[in-house]
Protein backbone atom coordinates (compact mmCIF):
# COMPACT_ATOMS: atom_id res chain seq x y z
CA UNK A 1 0.00 0.00 0.00
CA UNK A 2 1.39 3.43 -0.89
CA UNK A 3 1.04 6.70 0.92
CA UNK A 4 -1.90 8.98 0.16
CA UNK A 5 -2.03 12.75 0.52
CA UNK A 6 -3.71 12.31 3.91
CA UNK A 7 -0.56 10.68 5.28
CA UNK A 8 1.79 13.54 4.49
CA UNK A 9 2.39 14.95 7.97
CA UNK A 10 3.58 13.53 11.26
CA UNK A 11 0.33 14.57 12.93
CA UNK A 12 -1.72 12.76 10.26
CA UNK A 13 0.38 9.63 10.63
CA UNK A 14 0.11 9.56 14.42
CA UNK A 15 -3.63 10.26 14.29
CA UNK A 16 -4.22 7.33 11.94
CA UNK A 17 -2.06 5.03 14.07
CA UNK A 18 -3.91 6.07 17.23
CA UNK A 19 -7.29 5.61 15.55
CA UNK A 20 -6.43 2.03 14.62
CA UNK A 21 -5.09 1.25 18.07
CA UNK A 22 -8.25 2.75 19.56
CA UNK A 23 -10.30 0.38 17.37
CA UNK A 24 -8.48 -2.65 18.80
CA UNK A 25 -6.02 -3.36 15.96
CA UNK A 26 -2.56 -4.75 16.58
CA UNK A 27 -0.01 -2.84 14.48
CA UNK A 28 3.44 -3.92 13.30
CA UNK A 29 6.23 -1.43 12.43
CA UNK A 30 7.14 -3.06 9.10
CA UNK A 31 3.57 -2.87 7.81
CA UNK A 32 3.21 0.77 8.88
CA UNK A 33 6.55 1.69 7.33
CA UNK A 34 5.39 0.28 3.99
CA UNK A 35 2.04 2.07 4.17
CA UNK A 36 3.45 5.47 5.07
CA UNK A 37 6.55 5.15 2.86
CA UNK A 38 8.93 5.84 5.73
CA UNK A 39 11.64 3.74 7.35
CA UNK A 40 10.91 1.10 9.99
CA UNK A 41 13.14 3.11 12.30
CA UNK A 42 10.86 6.15 11.88
CA UNK A 43 7.79 4.08 12.77
CA UNK A 44 9.56 2.57 15.77
CA UNK A 45 10.37 6.10 16.93
CA UNK A 46 6.70 7.05 16.50
CA UNK A 47 5.57 4.07 18.56
CA UNK A 48 8.23 3.94 21.26
CA UNK A 49 9.02 7.63 21.78
CA UNK A 50 6.15 9.80 20.61
CA UNK A 51 3.28 7.46 21.43
CA UNK A 52 5.31 6.07 24.31
CA UNK A 53 4.27 9.18 26.24
CA UNK A 54 0.86 7.52 26.61
CA UNK A 55 2.32 5.18 29.20
CA UNK A 56 0.24 2.04 29.87
CA UNK A 57 -2.32 3.04 27.25
CA UNK A 58 -0.28 1.18 24.60
CA UNK A 59 1.35 -2.22 25.15
CA UNK A 60 3.70 -4.54 23.22
CA UNK A 61 2.66 -7.96 21.93
CA UNK A 62 4.79 -11.12 21.91
CA UNK A 63 5.29 -10.91 18.13
CA UNK A 64 6.67 -7.35 18.27
CA UNK A 65 3.41 -5.55 17.55
CA UNK A 66 1.71 -2.71 19.36
CA UNK A 67 -1.86 -2.55 20.64
CA UNK A 68 -3.98 -0.46 22.95
CA UNK A 69 -4.66 -1.98 26.35
CA UNK A 70 -8.14 -3.61 26.11
CA UNK A 71 -9.61 -1.55 28.92
CA UNK A 72 -9.08 1.59 26.81
CA UNK A 73 -10.65 0.39 23.52
CA UNK A 74 -12.98 3.04 22.12
CA UNK A 75 -12.53 5.36 25.11
CA UNK A 76 -10.76 8.13 23.13
CA UNK A 77 -12.63 10.35 20.69
CA UNK A 78 -11.20 11.49 17.36
CA UNK A 79 -10.77 14.95 18.91
CA UNK A 80 -8.66 13.43 21.70
CA UNK A 81 -6.50 11.56 19.20
CA UNK A 82 -6.01 14.56 16.92
CA UNK A 83 -5.15 16.76 19.90
CA UNK A 84 -2.30 14.52 20.99
CA UNK A 85 -1.00 14.02 17.46
CA UNK A 86 -0.93 17.77 16.85
CA UNK A 87 0.90 18.39 20.13
CA UNK A 88 3.89 16.35 18.97
CA UNK A 89 4.96 19.43 17.00
CA UNK A 90 3.96 21.96 19.64
CA UNK A 91 5.55 20.61 22.81
CA UNK A 92 7.18 23.96 23.60
CA UNK A 93 3.76 25.55 23.84
CA UNK A 94 2.99 23.69 27.05
CA UNK A 95 5.16 24.68 30.00
CA UNK A 96 5.08 21.19 31.52
CA UNK A 97 5.02 18.70 28.64
CA UNK A 98 5.61 15.43 30.49
CA UNK A 99 3.95 12.00 30.43
CA UNK A 100 1.25 12.88 32.94
CA UNK A 101 0.39 16.11 31.18
CA UNK A 102 0.01 14.34 27.83
CA UNK A 103 -2.27 11.78 29.41
CA UNK A 104 -4.35 14.57 30.92
CA UNK A 105 -4.66 16.28 27.55
CA UNK A 106 -6.06 13.08 26.12
CA UNK A 107 -8.70 13.04 28.86
CA UNK A 108 -11.79 14.54 27.23
CA UNK A 109 -12.65 16.27 30.49
CA UNK A 110 -9.73 18.62 29.84
CA UNK A 111 -11.11 19.88 26.54
CA UNK A 112 -12.94 22.65 28.43
CA UNK A 113 -10.00 23.47 30.73
CA UNK A 114 -7.16 24.26 28.32
CA UNK A 115 -7.44 26.25 25.11
CA UNK A 116 -4.75 27.40 22.72
CA UNK A 117 -5.24 30.38 20.40
CA UNK A 118 -2.18 31.25 18.36
CA UNK A 119 1.17 29.59 17.73
CA UNK A 120 3.89 31.43 19.66
CA UNK A 121 4.31 31.11 23.41
CA UNK A 122 5.85 32.64 26.50
CA UNK A 123 8.37 30.74 28.59
CA UNK A 124 7.33 30.12 32.20
CA UNK A 125 10.02 29.63 34.84
CA UNK A 126 10.07 26.56 37.11
CA UNK A 127 7.98 28.19 39.86
CA UNK A 128 5.40 29.36 37.33
CA UNK A 129 5.30 25.88 35.80
CA UNK A 130 4.48 24.41 39.18
CA UNK A 131 1.70 26.96 39.70
CA UNK A 132 0.41 26.21 36.21
CA UNK A 133 0.01 22.54 37.08
CA UNK A 134 -1.70 23.42 40.36
CA UNK A 135 -4.14 25.79 38.67
CA UNK A 136 -4.82 23.30 35.87
CA UNK A 137 -5.62 20.62 38.47
CA UNK A 138 -7.81 22.99 40.50
CA UNK A 139 -9.68 24.00 37.33
CA UNK A 140 -10.30 20.38 36.41
CA UNK A 141 -11.31 19.42 39.96
CA UNK A 142 -13.41 22.60 40.39
CA UNK A 143 -11.57 23.82 43.49
CA UNK A 144 -11.55 27.41 44.73
CA UNK A 145 -8.23 29.26 44.51
CA UNK A 146 -6.64 32.48 45.71
CA UNK A 147 -3.47 34.36 44.81
CA UNK A 148 -1.64 37.67 44.68
CA UNK A 149 -1.81 39.42 41.31
CA UNK A 150 0.71 42.00 40.08
CA UNK A 151 -0.89 45.10 38.57
CA UNK A 152 0.75 48.34 37.35
CA UNK A 153 -0.51 50.10 40.44
CA UNK A 154 0.68 47.35 42.81
CA UNK A 155 -0.26 43.88 44.00
CA UNK A 156 -3.84 42.85 44.75
CA UNK A 157 -5.00 39.75 46.63
CA UNK A 158 -7.83 37.64 45.25
CA UNK A 159 -9.67 35.00 47.27
CA UNK A 160 -12.28 32.32 46.59
CA UNK A 161 -12.00 32.53 42.81
CA UNK A 162 -13.72 29.94 40.64
CA UNK A 163 -11.17 28.90 37.97
CA UNK A 164 -12.89 28.06 34.67
CA UNK A 165 -10.22 27.83 32.01
CA UNK A 166 -6.58 28.34 31.06
CA UNK A 167 -6.23 30.01 27.67
CA UNK A 168 -3.11 30.56 25.60
CA UNK A 169 -3.91 33.68 23.58
CA UNK A 170 -1.28 34.74 21.02
CA UNK A 171 1.40 33.07 23.11
CA UNK A 172 0.42 34.35 26.57
CA UNK A 173 -1.28 32.15 29.18
CA UNK A 174 -4.36 33.57 30.90
CA UNK A 175 -6.59 32.23 33.64
CA UNK A 176 -10.32 32.80 33.21
CA UNK A 177 -11.92 32.85 36.65
CA UNK A 178 -15.09 34.04 38.34
CA UNK A 179 -14.49 36.69 40.99
CA UNK A 180 -17.77 37.06 42.86
CA UNK A 181 -20.22 37.65 40.03
CA UNK A 182 -17.66 38.93 37.50
CA UNK A 183 -15.77 36.79 35.01
CA UNK A 184 -12.17 38.04 34.73
CA UNK A 185 -8.97 37.16 32.88
CA UNK A 186 -5.59 37.08 34.65
CA UNK A 187 -2.21 37.00 32.91
CA UNK A 188 -0.71 33.85 34.39
CA UNK A 189 2.84 35.19 34.70
CA UNK A 190 1.57 37.89 37.10
CA UNK A 191 0.16 35.37 39.58
CA UNK A 192 2.06 34.52 42.78
CA UNK A 193 1.42 33.07 46.25
CA UNK A 194 -1.15 30.61 44.92
CA UNK A 195 -3.44 28.86 47.40
CA UNK A 196 -5.76 26.01 46.41
CA UNK A 197 -8.75 25.36 48.66
CA UNK A 198 -10.34 21.93 49.20
CA UNK A 199 -13.70 23.68 48.79
CA UNK A 200 -15.35 23.00 45.43
CA UNK A 201 -17.74 24.89 43.19
CA UNK A 202 -20.25 23.98 40.51
CA UNK A 203 -19.53 25.65 37.14
CA UNK A 204 -22.32 27.74 35.66
CA UNK A 205 -23.34 26.42 32.21
CA UNK A 206 -23.98 29.97 30.96
CA UNK A 207 -20.42 31.03 31.80
CA UNK A 208 -18.97 27.92 30.17
CA UNK A 209 -20.97 28.64 27.01
CA UNK A 210 -19.80 32.26 27.08
CA UNK A 211 -16.15 31.18 27.27
CA UNK A 212 -16.69 28.73 24.42
CA UNK A 213 -17.93 31.62 22.27
CA UNK A 214 -15.07 33.99 23.14
CA UNK A 215 -12.38 34.67 20.52
CA UNK A 216 -10.01 36.42 22.89
CA UNK A 217 -9.33 37.17 26.54
CA UNK A 218 -11.43 40.34 26.81
CA UNK A 219 -14.52 39.32 28.75
CA UNK A 220 -16.67 42.41 28.31
CA UNK A 221 -20.23 41.26 27.63
CA UNK A 222 -20.92 44.44 25.64
CA UNK A 223 -19.61 43.79 22.15
CA UNK A 224 -18.97 46.45 19.51
CA UNK A 225 -19.76 45.67 15.90
CA UNK A 226 -16.91 46.61 13.58
CA UNK A 227 -17.35 46.71 9.79
CA UNK A 228 -14.26 46.45 7.60
CA UNK A 229 -13.76 47.00 3.90
CA UNK A 230 -11.30 44.46 2.52
CA UNK A 231 -9.68 45.15 -0.84
CA UNK A 232 -9.83 42.72 -3.74
CA UNK A 233 -6.16 41.84 -3.24
CA UNK A 234 -6.79 40.66 0.33
CA UNK A 235 -10.34 39.32 -0.09
CA UNK A 236 -9.23 35.77 -0.76
CA UNK A 237 -7.52 35.49 2.60
CA UNK A 238 -10.67 36.56 4.46
CA UNK A 239 -12.79 34.17 2.40
CA UNK A 240 -10.55 31.20 3.17
CA UNK A 241 -10.44 31.66 6.95
CA UNK A 242 -11.71 33.81 9.79
CA UNK A 243 -9.08 36.47 10.43
CA UNK A 244 -11.06 38.69 12.82
CA UNK A 245 -13.22 37.74 15.86
CA UNK A 246 -16.75 36.52 15.05
CA UNK A 247 -16.07 37.21 11.37
CA UNK A 248 -18.97 37.33 8.93
CA UNK A 249 -18.93 38.26 5.26
CA UNK A 250 -21.58 40.97 4.91
CA UNK A 251 -21.32 41.67 1.18
CA UNK A 252 -19.33 40.90 -1.95
CA UNK A 253 -18.79 44.19 -3.79
CA UNK A 254 -18.65 44.55 -7.58
CA UNK A 255 -14.96 45.45 -7.63
CA UNK A 256 -14.04 42.19 -5.84
CA UNK A 257 -13.68 43.75 -2.41
CA UNK A 258 -15.62 42.64 0.68
CA UNK A 259 -17.52 44.12 3.59
CA UNK A 260 -16.69 42.09 6.68
CA UNK A 261 -18.25 42.40 10.12
CA UNK A 262 -16.74 41.53 13.48
CA UNK A 263 -17.87 41.80 17.09
CA UNK A 264 -15.25 42.67 19.69
CA UNK A 265 -15.13 43.39 23.40
CA UNK A 266 -12.03 45.60 23.10
CA UNK A 267 -10.43 47.56 20.24
CA UNK A 268 -7.18 45.63 20.69
CA UNK A 269 -8.94 42.51 19.49
CA UNK A 270 -9.07 43.90 15.97
CA UNK A 271 -6.79 46.95 15.60
CA UNK A 272 -3.53 44.91 15.39
CA UNK A 273 -5.09 42.89 12.55
CA UNK A 274 -6.15 46.03 10.69
CA UNK A 275 -2.66 47.50 11.10
CA UNK A 276 -1.17 44.33 9.67
CA UNK A 277 -3.38 44.50 6.57
CA UNK A 278 -2.95 48.24 5.84
CA UNK A 279 -3.58 49.45 3.12
CA UNK A 280 -5.82 46.54 2.11
CA UNK A 281 -8.21 46.82 5.06
CA UNK A 282 -9.89 49.92 6.48
CA UNK A 283 -12.50 50.41 9.20
CA UNK A 284 -15.88 51.53 7.90
CA UNK A 285 -17.50 51.68 11.34
CA UNK A 286 -17.16 52.81 14.03
CA UNK A 287 -15.92 55.76 12.00
CA UNK A 288 -13.95 57.17 14.92
CA UNK A 289 -11.76 54.07 15.06
CA UNK A 290 -10.56 54.62 11.50
CA UNK A 291 -9.79 58.28 12.23
CA UNK A 292 -7.84 57.34 15.37
CA UNK A 293 -5.91 54.71 13.41
CA UNK A 294 -5.02 57.20 10.67
CA UNK A 295 -3.73 59.68 13.25
CA UNK A 296 -1.68 56.95 14.90
CA UNK A 297 -0.15 55.89 11.59
CA UNK A 298 0.53 59.49 10.55
CA UNK A 299 2.37 60.08 13.83
CA UNK A 300 4.39 56.92 13.32
CA UNK A 301 5.36 57.88 9.77
CA UNK A 302 6.32 61.43 10.80
CA UNK A 303 8.69 60.03 13.45
CA UNK A 304 10.30 57.48 11.16
From TrEMBL:
This is HTH deoR-type domain-containing protein. GO terms for molecular function: DNA-binding transcription factor activity. Residues 10-67 form the HTH deoR-type domain. It comes from the Bacteria. It holds the Pfam family WYL. PANTHER family: PROTEIN PAFC, PTHR34580. The keyword Transcription applies. Keywords: Transcription, Transcription regulation. It comes from Sphaerotilus natans subsp. natans DSM 6575. The keyword Transcription applies. InterPro entries: CBASS_pafABC_assoc_protein, DeoR_HTH, WCX_dom, WH-like_DNA-bd_sf, WH_DNA-bd_sf, WYL_dom.
